[in-house]
Structure formats: structure tokens, C-alpha cells
TrEMBL record:
<feature type="transmembrane region" description="Helical">
    <location>
        <begin position="273"/>
        <end position="295"/>
    </location>
</feature>
<keyword id="KW-1133">Transmembrane helix</keyword>
<comment type="similarity">
    <text>Belongs to the binding-protein-dependent transport system permease family.</text>
</comment>
<keyword id="KW-0812">Transmembrane</keyword>
<dbReference type="Pfam" id="PF00528">
    <property type="entry name" value="BPD_transp_1"/>
</dbReference>
<dbReference type="InterPro" id="IPR035906">
    <property type="entry name" value="MetI-like_sf"/>
</dbReference>
<feature type="transmembrane region" description="Helical">
    <location>
        <begin position="223"/>
        <end position="242"/>
    </location>
</feature>
<keyword id="KW-0472">Membrane</keyword>
<feature type="transmembrane region" description="Helical">
    <location>
        <begin position="81"/>
        <end position="102"/>
    </location>
</feature>
<keyword id="KW-0614">Plasmid</keyword>
<feature type="transmembrane region" description="Helical">
    <location>
        <begin position="154"/>
        <end position="174"/>
    </location>
</feature>
<protein>
    <recommendedName>
        <fullName>ABC transmembrane type-1 domain-containing protein</fullName>
    </recommendedName>
</protein>
<keyword id="KW-0813">Transport</keyword>
<feature type="transmembrane region" description="Helical">
    <location>
        <begin position="114"/>
        <end position="134"/>
    </location>
</feature>
<dbReference type="InterPro" id="IPR000515">
    <property type="entry name" value="MetI-like"/>
</dbReference>
<feature type="domain" description="ABC transmembrane type-1">
    <location>
        <begin position="83"/>
        <end position="295"/>
    </location>
</feature>
């Protein structure tokens, strides 16, 4: 499987981007203590003082914010939280949805329909709003400071967002399961005495596995969307630093996760430094493209495996037919007194 994935260019590009950003982020944290370079002012060609923000490539590769902080350091600092956080949410929500959706699909009638109709109500309530009400007491820093550790806040936030994303995915998996179980060959297998585990292993998983991979990617992208919405409401991933008193600055993220950075610089869209939002947004888009590349590579390998299995079965059947078609004289036995 790994060798086959290594031959998929989309997979290599996607996983390469993620590994590069993760390695850069951990090196920045471990060896440079998450240091952020700051340029409070510069002298121009006329020897006059010029203040930040500086546009990308003007003084720094990704530019600086209004306080002169270089965005490249924020991007490196937030990469590990963005990638690992969203993947954790995607994995947990997908696993829970799988555990709920498959049994629901096997019993897709009666009470299961009632459950589906009840859960479908969540389609019309944005997960971001529910997450905001649950997470604000935990993530918004009070005047006395945040009473919980960063690990605790991250764990609770990942768990809450994961649970909120489960119902739509569980219903989707249940629908896919129900459709496959209604196919003719599955019905025939049931008539011949196949049990639920046999149907799950032999008929369901081989036909649903590509859709499951797509659902996992969708859950991860949904997690990024919810984190971005919370960021716009200044509820940042891992906690929001809040200053109180006269001269207090705007709320800032603790982790500088990319979706939180979009929320932090959201107000600059109405100014002439709107590129401040564009920088973390570009990295979020690259992250999503990398995910899509990885998923495409995995699905291509799955298709190749299915094709190889099909060809093996076909060759086996053809070999059997060819063997049965070529009858030799030794295949026959002379019956005594048969000429009479």
C-alpha cells in the first residue's frame, strides 16, 4: 500500500506539504522557542522612518502586521495546531459517525427513520453557533486569566467540535449503507443465509470504502470551517488572549492557528492592508488542496487494488473455462462393452 501511494504524485505533493509545515513548526517551537521577529520601523531611501505594516516581499517574505510582527513566524507557529487539530477533529468525528451510521444503515426503518428525522434538524442549525455557546466560557480569557491549561482547552474544543460534526456524517453513512444493502446481490446473499458481519465484510466495506475516505476529508474541511467561523467571532483555537483596561489591544490567539489568524485580521478587510487576511487564508487553501491530493492518491490506489482483484478473478475463471474446454483422450474412460 505504501509503495503504491509513493507512486501517486497528488499524494506525494499533499503529504509533502503537510510534513514540511509540521517539521518547520516543530523546529521553530523546539529550537527557537516560537520566537517571532518584530520590525517596529524602517528607514526608507530618503532616510525617513516608515512604520508597519509592511506588505509581503517589502521587508519580509509574508509581510508584517500593524505591530511589525513577521507573519512567517506566526504561520510556522500555528501550522502544527492547524494541521493536527483539524485532522484530530476529522478523525474523531468520522470514527463516531462510522460507529453510529453503519448499525443505523442496517436497521434503516421504523425507529431509525425517526432518529434520522430528529437528527436532520441539526442541518438547519450551524455547528459554529452551538460551538460558540459551548466554548466561549472555556476559551475567552477573563480578567483573572485563563484558569485551565492549553492542553485541556485544546482537548475539550476538539471533542466538542467533533461531536457537533457527527450527526450529518452518521446520517450520510447510514444512507450509503442502506442503499448498498438494498442491491440485488446483497438480497440474494441474505436469502442464502448471510449474516450481518458477512454482509458488512464482503459486500458493504468493499463498495463503501471510497465514500468513507471522502467523508473523512469532508469532516476535516468542516472542522476548518467551524474553526474559521469561531475565529471571526474572536474565539480562537486554544484560547483568546484578552487585554482589559485603557489602551488595551484587540483580542489575539494563543496558538496562532491559521483559521484564528483569519479571524484576528478579519477587520483589516475594510482597510488598505487586506492582504493581512490573505496570508493565512492562502495557507488554509493550500492545506485543503493538500488534503484533497492525499485523498485522491488513496482513492486511486483503492481503485487499482479493486481492478487487480477483478483481473485475478477474471483470469482464474478464464483459466478454469479454458481447462474445461480442452478435453483430451485421457479425460475419457472406456466403458466395458460400450460398443454393443
Amino acid at each position: 500500500m505504501i509503495k503504491k501511494l509513493g507512486k501517486q504524485p497528488s499524494f506525494l505533493l499533499g503529504i509533502g506539504f503537510l510534513l514540511l509545515m509540521l517539521a518547520g513548526s516543530f523546529v521553530h517551537a523546539i529550537f527557537f522557542d516560537s520566537y517571532v521577529l518584530k520590525t517596529p520601523f524602517l528607514y526608507n531611501d530618503e532616510n525617513k522612518i516608515v512604520g508597519p505594516p509592511f506588505a509581503p516581499f517589502e521587508h519580509s517574505i509574508l509581510g508584517t502586521d500593524m505591530n511589525g510582527n513577521h507573519l512567517i513566524y506566526y504561520i510556522l507557529q500555528g501550522a502544527k495546531f492547524t494541521i493536527l487539530g483539524s485532522l484530530s477533529i476529522g478523525l474523531i468525528s468520522f470514527s463516531l459517525a462510522f460507529l453510529i451510521g453503519i448499525p443505523l444503515g442496517f436497521r434503516y426503518k421504523g425507529k431509525s427513520k425517526i432518529v434520522e428525522n430528529t437528527v436532520s434538524a441539526l442541518y438547519f442549525i450551524p455547528a459554529s453557533l452551538i460551538a460558540y455557546n459551548f466554548l466561549r466560557p472555556l476559551l475567552w480569557e477573563p480578567m483573572s486569566g485563563l484558569p485551565t491549561s492549553l492542553a485541556f482547552r485544546l482537548g475539550v474544543e476538539v471533542l466538542v467540535i467533533s461531536i457537533l460534526l457527527v450527526p450529518p456524517a452518521a446520517i450520510l453513512i447510514a444512507n450509503e449503507t442502506s442503499v448498498i444493502l438494498k442491491r440485488e446481490y446483497v438480497t440474494t446473499s441474505k436469502v442464502l443465509g448471510a449474516g450481518p458481519y458477512h454482509l458488512y465484510r464482503r459486500h458493504l466495506i468493499p463498495h463503501i470504502k471510497e465514500n468513507l475516505v471522502t467523508i473523512f476529508m469532508r469532516q476535516t474541511i468542516q472542522a476548518i470551517l467551524v474553526m474559521s467561523h469561531l475565529g471571526v467571532f474572536e474565539l480562537f483555537f486554544g484560547g483568546t488572549n484578552v487585554e482589559y483596561g485603557l489602551g488595551a489591544g484587540p483580542p489575539t490567539p494563543i496558538t496562532f492557528e491559521w483559521a484564528s489568524m483569519v479571524g484576528m485580521y478579519y477587520d483589516t478587510l475594510q482597510t488598505n492592508v487586506h492582504w493581512l487576511v490573505g496570508v493565512p487564508l492562502i495557507f488554509l487553501v493550500l492545506f485543503v488542496i493538500a488534503l484533497m491530493g492525499i485523498i485522491r492518491g488513496v482513492k486511486n490506489v483503492m481503485k487499482l487494488d479493486d481492478r487487480n482483484v477483478y483481473l485475478k478473478k477474471k483470469r482464474r475463471v478464464e483459466g478454469t473455462e479454458r481447462h474445461s474446454a480442452k478435453l483430451e483422450t485421457t479425460d475419457f474412460t472406456m466403458v466395458k462393452d460400450s460398443s454393443k
